[in-house]
Specification:
With about 400 residues, the protein is an alpha+beta fold. Strands 6, 7, 8, 9, 10, 13, 14, 15, 16, 17 and 18 form an eleven-stranded antiparallel β-sheet that branches. The protein has a four-stranded parallel β-sheet with strand order 2-1-3-4, sandwiched between helices.
Length: about 400
Amino acid sequence: MDSFLQPQDIAKSISSLVSKNSLWENKIVNIFVIANKKAGCFTQKNKSKKYKKILSRAISLAEKRQTCTKQINSKVFCTEYANHAKELADSIITQIIANPQEEETNLLVVAGGDGTSYEVQTALFQAAQQSEKKHKTVTQDICLLRLPLGTGNDGTDGRTLEETINLLLGEIKFEKNPALKILYQGNPTQKDVENTGRKVINLQSSINTTPWFSFNVFSMGIDAYVCYMTNVLKSKMPGNFYHFFIPICAILYDKVFPAGIAKVEYYDENNTLIEENSTPIELFVMGISGYRTYGGGHKILATKENTIIVPKLSTLKLLLNFKKIKDGTAYLTNLVKIQNATKVKIFYDKPVLIQCDGEPLLLCKEHFPITIEKSEPIIQKISPVFRNGAV
């Protein structure tokens, strides 16, 4: 028997769990699995064996329950190159629109790492902006399930596969999530980016590619640098090197990207300016909500507020307090500033790295100002039903 996990194993397991969950009662459910077969869950033997056992146990548990769906149909698609997951998601959306059925609903399952999930969510978000029909399809007829099969798993449905299985075995509901839309308002050229003199590799172009999207956390500054360094090493060998690079980047960051003065404006849901401040900046983070993690479970937004600023710190002070910053407890100190905002505008006059859900970009001063704005709730996912304080 093949000891490696296969995308078909995922389709079979999710189909079994969905067929027994009352959320889809009396529905014909079409399950589309988009899998990145180069992800560690499929290529690393120990990880594959572990996940296969978890999915096998899930099927055994589901088989003891009564089937409540009318029918389950499943299809598996495998990515073959960069941005292929987005293309596959686009084609699935087109297919759903072309064959509408009243009793049918659709579950789009992402089986891969954070990059695959990012591409699929980008496709859904962009499609919802293109027409009223596509907006209705994305927000009402498609549910997204993001399996935690990568290294970070900060924007997935469950931090571990066991959590996701328990979610599908429990009482759940549909819930729509917003996204962050990031736009630059300056007029940069590729020459401007090159003139920053920053030697960075394997970054996508930051010219004429906006809006960028984040479905979990956007950040600017040292965290984006840690993310960039992590991705560089991860491209050469598998693994999560985020922890490894934190102390290294704390020492190197201010030498590579000296801090400039950032003017930050915060706006509420009525587009009313509620606060502004100017400070030399070490880090800015904005999430689609508060209580967000990044870098593999670090509670960077540990309160209901969805933004945080870390002003410029000395190298020693940064090293001494980085644990508080990465585990979310920095909000208890006077080191940081937290705020809740629907839109943020940042003015800056230095080269800097930003990252959107693990995808880093190099910006030059000509990009600024940039805006980061929370969208309406668009992407439909599942969440647990809480009753009397318990799930």
